[in-house]
């Protein structure tokens, strides 16, 4: 056996990423190399193609990279949806590199993440925009997709004035291909937590980005029923970042207290991706603005990586907040599409179990009352304490075991009659 062969087999294959900007082709080659060299933990797949026909590559890392495992949450990082905001794209490639290298070197931080979570990386949602991006710090050349559309204004919006813009099915048919690809992706897995990386500011911004002046509007902010969780998530990022929490300003922008903001309070926008994730896909997503300059010189990338490394990892671990488990029907089988609601949190679209009967609910430590509804079964209400999960790399596991309703027909009526008024009101507001 030659020395060269030994060297090639012993050096982790992923540790080949240089600091610098990578073209779409270079990025593709790198992701393929990670995939081919690490079949036990890596799985490269495409969620679709851009307008110009470029693949929208996603790399999944985890102990079961190709398929979901019950109890293992799905997490995602998305970058470069604005083609000229390029730092996030390189940060994600760097994070992939370190996670794989750490796993190969048996480092506990990487083993803990990849044994407890499946992490999906979409380093570029807008590769066509990237191809024409100007390296100017503040201008928007390359921001849009090939059709000149801002992808972060192109998702169905629960607060949109026009009814058709609220309808996920209809809006999906009319959306740009990159947006449709992400919407389709969200249907393939129940993503629990996500971040969407941008540039041009230094702040962690959380839902809602929009409002129609309803009960969500509190002062100048548009607050979700899970505002406490969103504020926590945003602070986890800003306080683990080298200086985001200090509320530094970029140019003439106002300072952000603790480096976080409610999206609407910063500036309202319609058709954003984070609201769509939360409202329609029950995935809590935070928008991370990771550099004042959208396209900084390549020699700034090592510092930007150092600034963001700890926060990227800390945010990822928050996927273990709260409680997870399954809803089982009276025969012990998985109950798909069962509503699992938390008292005091009136979600526009109630959180439901997936096809495996699984649910995930990100919650801060506390005592919570859960109500579970499934056709033909008695409504189940339980109250219990939810501890802080991220330190132990797991949310609390709690299965809900349902009992069959005595009389199925009357139980159906009862279910309809006791459906929370808030949910009914929200649905009327949406579709009325
Ligand atoms: Zn952006």
Describe the structure.
The chain has two domains: about 10-320, Zn peptidases (Aminopeptidase, 3-Layer(aba) Sandwich); about 325-430, Carboxypeptidase-like, regulatory domain (Immunoglobulin-like, Sandwich), CATH 2.60.40.1120. The protein contains 14 helices and 17 strands. The longest helix is centred in the first third of the chain and has 18 residues, at about 85-105. Helix content is about 35%, strand content about 20%. A hairpin with a 2-residue loop joins strand 7 and strand 8. The radius of gyration is 22 Å and the shape is globular. The site of zinc ion has 3 residues, from loops.
| Major sheet characteristics | 8 strands, mixed
- Which spans have pLDDT < 50 for at least 5 consecutive residues? 1-14, 410-432
Reported CATH architecture of the largest domain: 3-Layer(aba) Sandwich
Q: Which structural class do the helices and strands define?
A: alpha/beta
Averaged pLDDT: 91
Q: End-to-end span in angstroms?
A: 73 Å
The third-level CATH topology of the largest domain is Aminopeptidase
Number of strands: 17
Largest sheet, spatial ordering of strands: 1-2-4-3-5-10-6-9
Strand content: 15-25%
Rg for CA atoms: 22 Å
Amount of helix: 25-40%
For the record, the CATH class of the largest domain is Alpha Beta
Number of helices: 14
Bound molecules: zinc ion
